[in-house]
Specification:
Blueprint lengths: L6 E2 L9 E3 L23 H4 L5 H8 L5 E3 L2 H7 L7 E3 L1 H7 L4 E6 L10 H14 L3 E6 L3 H12 L4 E6 H6 L1 H9 L3 E5 L5 H9 L7 H13 L4 E3 L6 H20 L6 E5 L4 H16 L5 E7 L4 H4 L1 E6 L8 E6 L21 H8 L4 E5 L1 H15 L5 H20 L4 E6 L7 H8 L10 H8 L11
Parallel strand pairs: 5-15, 6-7, 6-9, 7-8, 10-11, 10-15, 11-14
Antiparallel strand pairs: 1-4, 2-3, 4-5, 12-13
Length: 459
């Protein structure tokens, strides 16, 4: 029996040359985005005031299965890709499990996460269109950092609206973003009409990704030559992130391996959607039947406790309406430490797949997540981001099930990034001051009651 190496790297020649569009293999597509003004399916041209034209096209393209990665983006990818597929031998030994555990590590770049995969694509298309600059939001700061890197490379100005509690918890994220010449604003802020309105209604708010999205969109549409870009949730982002899963599958094929279970953390859906893409393709086309497990924070449980309904993607209610699992766009999550997972909704693609039974979801309290994260760091020497640690928790639970049953299943999870900017969170866990927050049913019902009414569609 051949020894499987700890780390497997594809060569540059083996890297994917195309992104995979999961929608092309979905027999039942996600419901279309709706224009909030008309209540009708949005057209590509109606997205142009907000998005780059080619990104708007990718957003609504449900039929093109594979989309060529522009050569310039391929060359950028080669600065930090391919990323390694790692066999977690020490974790397996510690858990005393017969399961084989693999993880795809996306933290080997300055942003410290998978976010750069889509950031470079969106910055490239913006530069190609001749834009003057971009705006965006960021939760934990990984997306803001990644986009700052990409915009700096293409000499594009960038304004980042960062969720206020994360901005305060992670001051060095601001320093890194400034290193790449981007501007960063804690959200909600006084710099936009929507921000001022949110602050007037809730002066002490810790912010949310929904708030930050609203401010970034307003700034983009009111600034000449600027467009807005988003790091998660959107179809185009899951398309770009498919390189994670494509590389994972290619590396596992070199080892003659295939996962029985694929586990990913779930916030807006970018990492999860990218990791599972080719394995979900196999499931949709009947080639294989891996279990797909999403792991989300108990403080922001959109899949496990949300409603499958049309909702705004932002708190200010200026974005198109998406049918997704949502906690309501007015829902403000607690200021927990997994800032990248503090979004009220979920990718429409992933929401549809979950609704139709193609994937599972669990939620977990953050103290359990950090317990798992510290254990993993001691075994595998990588300090994981809090977001990534949700996936580790899910993988560990699957491995422990194998220990009980004696099954030697193959488990793949996504290690989306590193936690070196999350030391306040780790310290909070270690000194015993970390608190778990789970919203009550009454709190969620209050938010659900404010879901938009759409004549003939959602009364």
């Amino acid at each position: 029996m051949k020894k499987i190496p700890h780390r497997v790297y594809l060569t540059e020649e083996q890297m994917p040359k195309q992104w995979y569009n999961l929608r092309a293999d979905m027999k039942d597509l996600p419901d279309p985005l709706l224009n909030p003004g008309t209540g009708r399916p949005i057209t590509e041209e109606e997205l142009y005031p907000v998005f780059c034209e080619k990104l708007a096209h990718q957003e609504l393209d449900n039929t093109t299965r594979y989309i060529d990665i522009p050569e310039e983006i391929q060359e950028f990818y080669k600065m930090y890709r391919p990323s390694p597929l790692i066999r977690a031998y020490n974790l397996e030994k510690y858990l005393d499990t017969p399961a084989k555990i693999y993880y795809k590590f996306e933290g080997n770049n300055t942003s410290g996460s998978h976010k750069l995969n889509s950031a470079v694509a969106q910055a490239y298309y913006a530069k190609e269109q001749g834009l003057k600059g971009l705006t965006t939001e960021t939760g934990a700061g990984q997306w803001g950092t990644a986009l700052a890197e990409a915009c700096s490379f293409y000499h594009l100005p960038l304004i980042v609206y960062m969720v206020k509690c994360s901005y305060e918890q992670k001051p060095f994220r601001k320093s890194v973003i400034h290193t790449f010449d981007a501007e960063i604003v804690p959200s909600p802020s006084e710099t936009t009409e929507i921000g001022r309105k949110i602050l007037a209604e809730n002066p002490g708010t810790s912010g949310s990704l929904g708030c930050a999205i609203s401010e970034a969109v307003e700034k983009a549409v009111s600034t000449d030559g600027y467009k807005y870009v988003l790091g998660s949730v959107l179809n185009q982002v899951l398309l770009h992130q498919s390189i994670i899963g494509l590389e994972s599958k290619a590396a596992m094929e070199l080892l003659d391996e295939y996962p029985d279970v694929v586990v990913g953390c779930a916030g807006g859906g970018s990492n999860l959607g990218g990791l599972i893409a080719p394995f979900m393709q196999d499931k949709l086309t009947g080639k294989a039947s891996p279990r797909i497990v999403a792991v989300e924070p108990a403080s922001c449980p959109s899949l496990t406790r949300g409603k499958y309904a049309y909702d705004f993607c932002d708190t200010g209610k200026v974005t198109p309406l998406a049918r997704m699992y949502t906690l309501g766009c007015d829902f403000i999550p607690s200021a927990n430490h997994a800032g990248g997972l503090r979004y009220h909704g979920m990718s429409p693609i992933l929401s549809k797949l979950y609704h139709d039974g193609f994937m599972e979801a669990i939620s977990v309290e953050q103290s359990k997540v950090f317990e798992t994260a510290t254990m993993f760091a001691k075994q595998e020497t990588i300090l994981p981001a809090p977001e990534s640690a949700h996936a580790i928790y899910g993988a560990v639970q699957e491995a422990l099930k194998c220990k009980e049953s004696g099954e030697a299943k193959t488990i793949l999870f996504g290690l989306t990034g590193t936690g070196y900017f999350d030391m306040y969170a780790y310290q909070s866990y270690m000194d015993g001051t970390m608190k778990d927050y789970i919203p009550t049913d009454a709190e969620l019902e209050k938010s659900f009651a404010r879901l938009p009414k759409i004549p003939g569609i959602q009364e």
